[in-house]
């Protein structure tokens, strides 16, 4: 490494993305796909944000560990992330749970999901490991976090968000001193510890960790030999390192990536139907909080080859139009009206239909005269002619998955039950 002392630390790092979670709070959206494979933003999948952050940060070795209903995720990774080249010292490995260590269990926890693949990771000989969750929406330059890790001589550096103390009980909370050294790590405390000098703020874990690779290998082997461990980073490894080593907090505000139009550091856990709907609908704002148009920090993904979006008919009451909406390639808005909606690839909205405050996943067909308001429509659904959703809460709750905030999730099996 001496010959490259001035090189970015990301050159010597591997990103290891944990992408095996189901995300059960997304209800039927994750019946057939893992949470990281859920669609987001018109073209992308949730996992594309962590992967794009790694790529844009300069990391060229990436592993993705999958487990729950991984086919759509693996297919997406193969189609959209296959451009890494070994002759450029790049690598991209997909690591499904495959009983590589024992014939009687899959990945037991997040730490075990790394431990079972240690031989693969070690074969690349990275100096640092950047461990990432694959299910959050944010833009972050991991190089800054790597630099802090080295400068402070930490055993682990943990990415942290500053949140109102009253909202921190649902997270893993860091109790830190004035130098951001972590004194204790508390999982979902009833009384979260405040940040020094900020009594109304708390630091919560983003599920992002930086380790020196050899230190992590030792900790994973120690944890694997512990019969009392659940083999989870948040429950086992991180508390152990906090108590027996040096754990340091890295504030997201120091490394978040913002364009000129983004006023605040953006991070979202889109783990519920309401949060998922809101984060997608927010993209239709005149100046959205998340800038997907920033060419300096692109969100890479698999982009289908499609014709441009098309708007047809220009008659009173039958005019193809979209107001404050995002419409992806391959969509046809045929004599219908969209308001504050996001259409993914290949959606067709037929004549006299109205779609408002809607997140419509790829290849949905909205029948004539349908009225959809405050909905998430799963991929490939065929909305019957004249169907009305979002105007009668009691009827909606009987037919569809209606959230606490009144958003209806619509899937094809739900539609089939209506017509059976």
UniProtKB/TrEMBL annotation:
Give the catalytic activity: alpha-D-glucose 1-phosphate + ATP + H(+) = ADP-alpha-D-glucose + diphosphate
Q: Name one GO biological process term.
A: glycogen biosynthetic process
Glucose-1-phosphate adenylyltransferase/Bifunctional protein GlmU-like C-terminal hexapeptide domain: residues covered: 307-410
Q: Does the keyword Methyltransferase apply?
A: no
Under Gene Ontology molecular function, one entry of this record is: ATP binding
Pathway entry: Glycan biosynthesis; glycogen biosynthesis
**Is the keyword Lipoprotein assigned to this protein?**
no
Name a Pfam family for this protein: Hexapep_GlmU
Going by the record, the broad EC class of this enzyme is transferase
Mind telling me which SUPFAM superfamilies this protein's record contains?
Answer: Nucleotide-diphospho-sugar transferases (SSF53448), Trimeric LpxA-like enzymes (SSF51161)
Q: Which residues form the Nucleotidyl transferase domain?
A: 16-284
Q: Where does the signal peptide begin and end?
A: none
The role this protein plays is:
Involved in the biosynthesis of ADP-glucose, a building block required for the elongation reactions to produce glycogen. Catalyzes the reaction between ATP and alpha-D-glucose 1-phosphate (G1P) to produce pyrophosphate and ADP-Glc.
| PANTHER family assigned to the protein according to its UniProt record, in alphabetical order | GLUCOSE-1-PHOSPHATE ADENYLYLTRANSFERASE (PTHR43523:SF2), GLUCOSE-1-PHOSPHATE ADENYLYLTRANSFERASE-RELATED (PTHR43523)
Alphabetized HAMAP family for the sequence: GlgC
Name of the protein in its database record:
Glucose-1-phosphate adenylyltransferase
Q: What is the lineage of its organism?
A: Bacteria, Pseudomonadati, Pseudomonadota, Alphaproteobacteria, Hyphomicrobiales
């Amino acid at each position: 490494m001496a010959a490259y002392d001035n090189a970015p630390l990301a050159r010597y790092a591997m990103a290891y993305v944990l992408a095996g979670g189901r995300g059960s709070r997304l209800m039927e959206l994750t019946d057939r796909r893992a949470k990281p494979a859920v669609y987001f933003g018109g073209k992308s999948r949730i996992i594309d944000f962590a992967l794009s952050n790694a790529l844009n940060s300069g990391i060229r070795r990436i592993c993705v560990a999958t487990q729950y209903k991984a086919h759509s995720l693996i297919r997406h990774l193969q189609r959209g992330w296959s451009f890494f080249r070994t002759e450029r010292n790049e690598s991209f490995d997909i690591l499904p749970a495959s009983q590589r260590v024992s014939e009687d269990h899959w990945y037991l926890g997040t730490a075990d999901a790394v431990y079972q693949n240690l031989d693969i990771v070690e074969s690349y000989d990275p100096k640092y490991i950047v461990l990432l969750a694959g299910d959050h929406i944010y833009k972050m330059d991991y190089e800054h976090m790597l630099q802090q890790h080295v400068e402070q001589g930490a055993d682990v550096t943990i990415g942290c968000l500053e949140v109102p103390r009253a909202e921190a009980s649902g997270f893993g909370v860091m109790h830190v001193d004035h130098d951001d050294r972590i004194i204790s790590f508390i999982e979902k405390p009833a009384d979260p510890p405040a940040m020094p000098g900020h009594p109304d703020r708390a630091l919560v874990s983003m599920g992002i960790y930086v380790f020196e690779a050899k230190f992590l290998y030792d900790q994973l082997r120690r944890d694997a030999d512990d019969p009392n461990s659940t083999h989870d980073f948040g429950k086992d490894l991180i508390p152990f390192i906090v108590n027996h080593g040096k754990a340091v907090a890295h504030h997201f505000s120091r490394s978040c990536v913002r364009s000129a139009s983004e006023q605040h550091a953006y991070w979202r856990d889109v783990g519920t139907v309401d949060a998922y709907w809101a984060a997608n609908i927010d993209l239709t704002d005149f100046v959205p909080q998340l800038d997907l148009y920033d060419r300096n920090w692109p969100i890479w993904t698999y982009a289908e080859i499609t014709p441009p979006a098309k708007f047809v008919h220009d008659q009173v009451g039958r005019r193809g139009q979209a107001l404050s909406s995002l419409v992806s390639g391959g969509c046809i808005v045929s004599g219908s009206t969209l308001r504050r909606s996001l259409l993914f690839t290949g959606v067709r909205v037929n004549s006299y239909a109205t779609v408002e405050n809607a997140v419509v996943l790829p290849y949905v067909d909205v029948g004539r005269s349908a009225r959809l308001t405050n909905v998430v429509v799963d991929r490939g659904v065929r909305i019957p002619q004249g169907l009305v959703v979002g105007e009668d809460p009691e009827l909606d709750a009987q037919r569809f998955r209606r959230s606490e905030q009144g958003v209806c999730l619509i899937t094809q099996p739900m539609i089939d039950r209506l017509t059976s």
